[in-house]
Design a protein that fits this description.
By secondary structure, the chain is α+β, with helices and mostly antiparallel strands. It has one domain: Gcn5-related N-acetyltransferase (GNAT) (Aminopeptidase), CATH 3.40.630. About 45% of the residues lie in helices and about 20% in strands. The protein has helices spanning about 15-25, 30-35, 40-60, 85-105, 110-115, 120, 150-165, 180-185, and strands at about 5-10, 60-65, 70-75, 135-145, 170-175, 190-195, 205. A 7-stranded mixed sheet has the order 1-2-3-4-5-7-6, with helices on both faces. α1 (about 15-25) crosses α3 and α3 (about 40-60) runs antiparallel to α4.
């Protein structure tokens, strides 16, 4: 995916992106379920997101609203050619890196256990049920709390959806916050399925 209306980020931006994601998701239902203790969550999330971003920069496009990086949207364009073996190896490597970090930082292994039990919430396997290769998947969509309500989210999402419409692509995403469902419906998404495994947490899978 390419768009000139957003500011494209690269690996040099990883540190500030990790901090932004931590700020945006520290109260997210998914991470509250996986890491219930607030202090531990605030400590672990920056490194967890750092591992995620390493993988994202290999397999996705990462855009911000501007150089100020008040919000980001991470997009996986499923129409672009890729090496399946390389992709699988990359996923395994970064997953293992994250799990080893969780063991090192929490010897009780409770956090590790939660992440293993919650693996379905952390991947995008549900999109296989869509049977649609002409598709983009929104991996992360986050706006700094202090900048919400100022048009940042709309700028990010509309740019991606404009690209999808121009190229006749389906758009997919998931959220673990029921309050976000109505917001995504505002952008034209509809609920495809709801997943719940091992936790009381629900994952809302949406398509447009």
């Amino acid at each position: 995916m390419n768009t000139r209306s957003l500011y494209r980020l690269d690996k040099n931006d990883s540190e500030k992106l990790s901090l932004l994601l931590t700020e945006c998701f520290q109260q997210d239902p998914l991470y509250c379920e996986l890491i219930p203790q607030k202090d531990k969550r605030n400590k672990l999330l920056p490194e967890i997101f750092s591992c995620d971003l390493d993988e994202m920069f290999e397999n996705c496009e990462v855009y911000a609203d501007s150089e100020a990086v008040n919000g980001i949207i991470v997009v996986s364009d499923e129409t672009e050619p890729y090496n399946p073996l390389r992709y699988a190896v990359s996923q395994c490597f970064y997953t293992l890196k994250t799990l080893l970090y969780l063991v090192k930082e929490d010897w009780s292994l409770q956090t590790l256990s939660n992440f293993i039990k919650g693996r379905e919430y952390l991947n995008e396997e549900w999109v296989e049920d869509l049977h649609q290769e002409k598709r983009i998947h929104i991996v992360y969509f986050a706006v700094r709390p202090s900048m919400r309500g100022r048009g940042v989210a709309s700028k990010l999402m509309k740019a991606v959806l404009h690209y999808a419409d121009d190229h006749d692509l389906m758009a997919s995403l998931e959220t673990h916050n029921v309050k976000n469902v109505r917001m995504y419906e505002h952008y034209g998404f509809r609920l495809f399925s709801t997943m719940q495994k091992h936790f009381t947490l629900k994952q809302f899978c949406m398509v447009r």
